[in-house]
Design brief:
The chain has 2 domains: about 110 residues, NAD(P)-binding Rossmann-like Domain (Rossmann fold, 3-Layer(aba) Sandwich); about 180 residues, NAD(P)-binding Rossmann-like Domain (Rossmann fold, 3-Layer(aba) Sandwich). It is built from 13 helices and 12 strands. Helix 10 links the parallel strand 9 and strand 10. The longest helix is centred in the C-terminal third of the chain and has 21 residues. The structure holds nicotinamide-adenine-dinucleotide (NAD). This is D-isomer specific 2-hydroxyacid dehydrogenase NAD-binding protein.
Length: about 325
């Protein structure tokens, strides 16, 4: 479809309308107001109401609740910027925005440290069966549970970006041998960090622990599919704080049940909340630990997300030629 350029003539601070449709941190709201922008804060607006009012706004600011779908973008004739106070764009129709020449700003990387720390926590939880042990302790049963040690084991990182790289550095400090695979050329960067770049097949064959840190679309084909499970080592621990679709859930259930997969520890599900029968069965399995997508949910990460998104939004407003 042909790209149409947004009209930016005669835009100024007084006639630029900003609509915030999800709860955002005070720092964002206050900064926009202090700069003198006209901001409507409607953190619980329904889709129907949004459809009615969107044509009055130049900028929409969302977190994860509001879905900025094609119909909203098409109805929003004045829209010039979509700001997502977050690290991903899953809830925005980026194709529809691009076709209209609407700029999207967000805060990739703002929650990297929080996601890295959760990943290491999940890795240890899986290896030491901490969830089972804690559940027993809480029910008054003080029984010893044997797990696995991570030092001396091989960790395979799939997706050697911001989070994957930091997880690798920490794992090395824990005494692990670290392999990494990415679709990009990571050879020099990995080698400099003492991390071994490998093919996916080598990683699957050699790893005692596999940790996924890929950016993949909602409909991507799983990286850990039936064939991948077949060539993995026995007793492999799998950690996933990236996207559930990177793993074939039904194949995972099969290999968890057979005992080949020692533990699966993840922060993401195929459906959040879960709905498929196989997904619920997997979730209930004692060697499966799932957290409720809390990778970015720390005070520090949420503050950085708000500050970075606000800075990026203000820069985008300046690019429209608006003085403030
Ligand atoms: N659980 C959470 O709350 C939480 C928090 C932060 C990030 N995340 C997710 O973690 C993932 C990684 O984030 P990041 O900031 O490190 O991203 P990033 O873009 O820095 O790194 C992702 C890496 O994955 C690689 N990649 C993409 N497809 C691949 C494939 N098929 N095989 C191998 N490598 C592939 C890319 O080349 C890139 O190097 C993302 O999916 C992100 O959404 C989740």
């Amino acid at each position: 479809m042909e790209q149409t350029t947004v009209q930016t003539n005669s835009l100024n601070k007084e006639n630029l309308n900003i609509l915030i449709t999800d709860p955002v941190a005070d720092v964002m709201l206050n900064t926009l107001k202090e700069k003198g922008f006209h901001v409507d804060y409607q953190p619980e607006i329904s889709k129907e109401e949004l459809m009615k009012v969107i044509e009055n706004y130049d900028i929409i600011v969302v977190r994860s609740r509001t879905r900025v779908t094609r119909d909203i973008i098409e109805r929003g004739k004045r829209l010039k910027i979509i700001a997502r106070a977050g690290i991903g764009l899953d809830n925005i129709d980026t194709d529809a925005a691009q076709e209209r020449g609407i700029k999207i700003v967000y805060a990739p990387g703002a929650s990297t440290d929080s996601a890295v720390e959760l990943t290491i926590g999940l890795m240890i939880t899986g290896a030491r069966k901490m969830y089972t042990s804690m559940t027993l302790a809480k029910s008054g049963i003080f029984k010893k549970i044997e797990g696995l040690e991570l030092a001396g084991k091989t960790l395979g990182i799939i997706g050697f970006g911001r989070i994957g790289t930091k997880v690798g550095i920490i794992a090395k400090a824990m005494g692990m041998r670290v392999l990494a695979y990415d679709i990009m050329d990571i050879k020099d960067r990995a080698t400099q960090l003492g991390i071994i770049p490998v093919t996916l097949e080598e990683l699957l064959k050699q790893s005692d622990v596999i940790s996924l840190h890929v950016t993949v679309g909602k409909n991507a084909k799983p990286i850990l599919d039936e064939k991948a499970f077949e060539i993995m080592k026995d007793n492999v621990i799998i950690v996933n704080t990236s996207r559930a679709v990177a793993v074939d859930g039904q194949a995972l259930l099969k290999y968890i049940k057979s005992g080949k997969v020692y533990a699966y520890a993840a922060d993401v599900l195929w459906h959040e909340p879960p709905k498929e029968e196989w997904e619920l069965e997997l979730l209930k399995h004692e060697r499966v630990t799932i957290t409720t997508h809390i990778g970015a949910q720390t005070k520090e990460a949420q503050y950085r997300v708000a500050v970075t998104t606000t800075e990026n939004l203000l820069n985008a407003i300046k690019e429209l030629g608006v003085q403030f």
